[in-house]
Amino acid sequence: MTDRDATTRPADTNAEQVVRYEVRGATAVVTMNRPKYRNAQNSLMTYELDAAFERAVNDNDVHVIVLTGAGDHFSAGHDIGTPGRDVHVPYDRKAVIWWDHTDKAGADARYAREMEVYLGMCRRWREIPKPSIAMVHGACIAGGLMLAWVCDLIVASGDAFFADPVVRMGIPGVEYFAHPWVLGPRFAKEALFTGDRFSAQRAYELGMVNRVVPRAELAETTFALADRIATMPPFGLSLVKRAVNQCEDLMGMRPGMDSTFGLHHVAHAHNAETGTDALAGMNARSMKSAAQSAAAQSAAAPSPPAPTPPARHSSPRHRQRRAREPGSRSAD
Fold this sequence. Notes:
The protein has helices at about 45-60, 105-125, 145-150, 180-185, 185-195, 200-205, 220-230, 235-250, 255-275, 285-300, 315-325, and strands at about 20-25, 25-30, 65-70, 130-135, 140, 155, 160-165, 200, 210-215. By secondary structure, the protein is of the alpha/beta class.
């Protein structure tokens, strides 16, 4: 794998390169690089990701983009408690035309920031004209789901797991609310109601994940798929992507997100008015602890009985056909 050079935006005060950019043949590999914090997404990472994606789009030799995470996990979601959390830092806005959030207060500040760095950026990345593949391993939680969902395809290792547990904060799902479209309404409700993890295999069964492979085969499988896609005409690929995205939006995804984004901020405002902060007093540590407790309770609960296979009843037409078959006997 060759490294043309790193992303051009400056790193944070700890000289941490939070996003790596490499090119492998016709594929740009964009890697979230905060493994110590399970690739939690702060604003710096968001804008570094945007710069990397823009760079891939403008490189005529790049036909496919692969997004992945360094270390043991894809992404544990938004940064709600690391030393690099930077909600107070202003950045040049790229996704929406709105005012800076850092000199505002209350719902004004939260709405302005999250419309830009969460909902707006995800929508911007979804419209990248080149095919993108999320290469997912380990945790893909909350904001991590958003990053995987904006990609066109998802290849996951068998040890990957997914969850959107933000209902523990009283919030009805992450800002990029694609749940009913990528999971189906029934399972979307179950996943949100419980906040439980679901496996890569379950995600595959639901149609959210394209392929599940052993961890050792994840990179090979993903890059083989990328190489195959890269042989197709680039403009044709961009039109296919736009066609499917437009159909999803006509099925209600875009206006659905607009409405649920408002509900998301009602929840934030309610938390701020009735509690200690907009996150209902939760942080990364308490969210992880709650998830572990829920997992332990689920493991201790008795498993439901396996469903009984339905009885096989032959139809009159089937019985007539069997009666006509050579060697068959009719009942006397």
